[in-house]
Amino acid sequence: MKRIIIDQEKCDGCKNCTVACMQAHRATPGTVYDLDLLDPKNEARHTIVANGKGGYFPIFCRHCSVPDCVGACMSGALCKDPVSGHVQYDESRCGTCFMCVMSCPYGNVKPDKVTHKRILKCDFCKDDTEGPNCVRVCPKKAIHVEEVSA
Amino acid sequence: MNESCYGCSTCASADKPLEGFIAKLPMETSHHRVESQETKCGFGLQGVCCRLCANGPCRITPESPRGICGATADVMVTRNLLRAVAAGSGCYIHVVENTALNLKNTALEKGKLKGLGALERLCKTFGVSGKDDHEKALNVANAVLEDLYKPEYVKMDLVEKMAYPPRFKVWKELGILPGGAKSEVFKGVVKCSTNLNSDPVNMLIDCLRLGISTGIYGLTLTNLLNDVLLGEPEIRMAPVGLRVIDPDYINIMITGHQHTMFVHLQERLIAPDVVAKAKAVGAKGFKLVGCTCVGQDLQLRGAHYTEIFNGHAGNNYTSEAILATGAIDAVLSEFNCTLPGIETVCDTLSIKQICIDDVAKKANAELKQFVFAERGKHSEEIIDAIIASYKERRPKVKLNLLPEHGYENNLTGVSEVSLKKFLGGNWKPLVDLIVSGDIKGVAGVVGCSSLVAGGHDVLTVALVKELIARDIIVLTAGCSSGGIENCGLMVPEAAELAGPKLKAVCKKLGIPPVLNFGPCLAIGRLEIVATELAETIGIDIPQLPLVLSAAQWLEEQALADGCFGLALGLPLHLGLPPFITGSKVATQVLTEDMKSLTGGQVIINADAKESADLLEKIIQEKRRALKI
Fold it and tell me: What is the pTM of this model?
């Protein structure tokens, strides 16, 4: 399976990945120029956190081999895709229990801030043949996609 | 020289022969760097990255809707925009200040004035006179300088004299009449500094005020003062492109906007003793090769410079290719657009760089700061340095010419005066063609050339083709002109690309469907044309079926020009937004609310066909309102 590999030493906190993620998942089509940066509906799926020493922790979904979020999901909204190996979310099956949020060891899965009824997590830009948008725009190559065993 | 190409990742150009030439160069140019800079910061693109204080950079996201200080996206965007407009205005005001000073010094020295018609018109407009031409020129120059140096709280005198009365009235009512032009720049940079103004609309109003001082002084008056000193444009045919480079001469590529600084040197370069010096080292003499706006301006006034000026080779992003021919022996620069990237090309090809105004000092250049009283001494030193460069470099540099590039017969020398003269002394023939619909409308395609929005001149040239196909005549000024002419749209045969009605008009008159007014400064000339057309019809400027496009605007100066267009009440198309879309207030005011303030509006679209549709629609609406 393909996974986003993080080299935190290289991250300079520019948040280009954040804008790219917002742009990739916006509800209405458009360019990066008209992406509403203030609209909570456009929240990015990952987080860049300062490490307190002048560097950053880029926190991206690991699409874990044995994902705790999937294990915790009682409704079957989260599943590890047997072909791609990516953990995908089916909003229609979500019971809003947020156990996935509680169980993600990386603190990556988060409730959405608008409806408080669904979660936001990385879908590996599954509909984009060129792969995750965040990776493509990272000027420091702090994140890259690598084939790993599932 | 390495024969292999540097890298095959150059950006596209509307000028395909040039694109091929650059892709094969054995050195890096700006065209090569587009790909490696492709990842743009989304916050920067939207204008919501603020680094005005040590708390920054602050960026706007759904989780962080304000900067640490509390600045909203609207505040960040308008502060950044005002800062850019103030800087751009400062650039043009620097140019007009030096131009007026050179006219003043020439008048005091009883030097040669080549454009007495322009001098008379300026005297009449300003209401000044003098016992002879030199005194008149002195009084004209002083009137401009006195206005430039007024404090911000004292309104400039010439605005009312230069402006179209209905426009002046609107500006007065809106409270956007500018005080001293230099002081307005000063106020602009103060206002957008850390923790000062936080009222987005108030800052946008300042942009308009800076637009007026930039437009009337930096653009319009710079042209007219240049006309007095350098001679007025005359309509004629001239060659463009890399073909103008003749390797048998010692070639000097000129870049900048301050043509009056070259006057003495230009005269000397064709003096018999200087030509003899060139011949002594094996050249036929000296030639100036036009590049950027100073080249456009010499092309415009080429009738006065046939001996020394060999033609305009290309715009800002053609400068590296011009140098890469190997046949340029020196670069003489005095302002932008002198790209930092030419330094490495000059190093590789041992090209001497000389700068005559330290505002544009290049790292590799020898600085010969222009001082009017010392220009004679400096001219000799510059000539000797360039001869030494020629002698040293020519035996070891291999030429890489492209003599088939460009076009031979381009219509040039078009100005508000020469065009009117061409039409028979008044604007009625053009107005009649507009009324009859033979010319649907007028589009000023102006400003810079950039390497984004499709690549080098890609959007500009595609848009021009779309417009002329819709019977909209195109008037150009700026580096856009350099790209459009190198793509063959300024030869009379380009009439074939126009719509049936415009094509018939062009063929009857023997003109191309795109008329070149020269440098970006000549946006001021286009605006005189707009004013005089409005005057002829008896309407205000926003009512004209006339649109502006700075499709590939590049720099801060273009933003200051654009603000003048908005103050005039014109629709202004931009290919890419000027880093404003992060602010709902700025976007709303500039694209919508401006219509009810000045009549102007910003239209943003990067697609040539869609942009032409939008501009055509505006032209049709204006026609309907005029019942034509």
Answer: 0.94
